[in-house]
Design a protein that fits this description.
- It is built from 9 helices and 6 strands.
- The chain is α/β, with parallel strands linked by helices.
- The chain has a 6-stranded mixed beta sheet.
- Helix 3 (about 95-110) packs across helix 9 (about 230-260) and helix 5 (about 155-160) crosses helix 7.
- The longest helix has about 35 residues, at about 230-260.
- The protein starts with 10 loop residues before the first helix and ends with a helix.
């Protein structure tokens, strides 16, 4: 029997007990996730350095078409400055948006050896409720996010920085804040990701002491995660759906070219 110790767990697995933090921000047509439209969603991945410091990674963002018979509150549209029916707005169905984001999140989960994603958001319950409602509406079977656990940066910033408003917390943390860019899902998600990383990095000493204490108590570490074969099936299904959506566009483009050739 080999006395060789098992390889150390990946850093992200150790840092968050097998969960991968992913920042989500949504812009919506109101406050009710079951009736009000999802209009924009952004997901920002978090990466970890060999030193254990966290930093913001890539962003995935999509404009979303309102689902059928969804509610659009004029007051909400005034805040987020979204015209849902603008002809130049590159919106896609919410099911397409979720599948694309979930594909990127699953790839990151596998890359870090984690088991599942956990949503990070500013007032995270709001974003999680809209995400879960959209998953239910679209019939997506496998959601990589934990259904109810989340990291709320309003709570973290309130405890660490004494500020709960995103703009003020970001500013106190020494980061830049552009008021004109606020209430865009992309901008708010990226600033939330930066804030989350700042707070977590400030807690590095506390985390190191806690990790040492856990080992002293003999608490068993998580077993390394293995890739789920279903993820590959989900990826193949997503690729097929993407190909099916592109096929009418190619057909239309070919018909346009034929029409032009036939024109006098």
């Amino acid at each position: 029997m080999s006395d060789t110790p098992p390889p150390p767990l990946p850093l992200m697995v150790r840092r968050f007990r097998g969960f991968l933090p992913v920042v989500i921000d949504v812009e919506t047509g109101g406050f009710q996730p079951n009736t009000d439209a999802l209009l924009q969603i952004a997901a920002v991945l978090i990466d970890i350095e060999p030193s254990g410091r966290l930093h913001r990674a890539e962003t995935h963002t999509y404009h979303v078409r309102p689902f059928a018979n969804s509610r659009l509150d004029p007051a909400s549209l005034l805040v987020n400055r979204i015209d849902p029916w603008h002809p130049l707005r590159p919106a896609i169905d919410e099911g397409d948006a979720l599948r694309r984001i979930f594909t990127a999140v699953r790839a990151a989960i596998r890359s870090h050896g984690c088991r599942r994603a956990v949503l990070v958001g500013h007032n995270a319950a709001f974003d999680l409720a809209f995400l879960n409602a959209a998953v239910t509406r679209t019939g997506i079977k496998r959601n990589p996010f934990h259904p109810f656990s989340c990291f709320d940066t309003a709570t973290l910033a309130g405890a660490a920085l004494g500020q709960t408003v995103l703009a003020k917390a970001v500013t106190i943390a020494g980061l830049s804040w552009d008021k004109a860019s606020a209430h865009s899902a992309t901008y708010d998600a990226e600033r939330t990701a930066d804030l989350f990383c700042v707070v977590c990095n400030e807690l590095a000493g506390s985390y190191a002491r806690a990790e040492l204490r856990a080992r002293q108590l003999g608490w068993q570490e998580l077993a390394p995660s293995t890739p789920d074969p279903q993820d590959d099936l989900d990826q193949a299904e997503s690729d097929r759906a993407e190909s099916d959506r592109a096929e009418p566009d190619r057909d239309a483009a070919g018909q346009d070219a034929a029409d032009q050739d036939a024109a006098p």
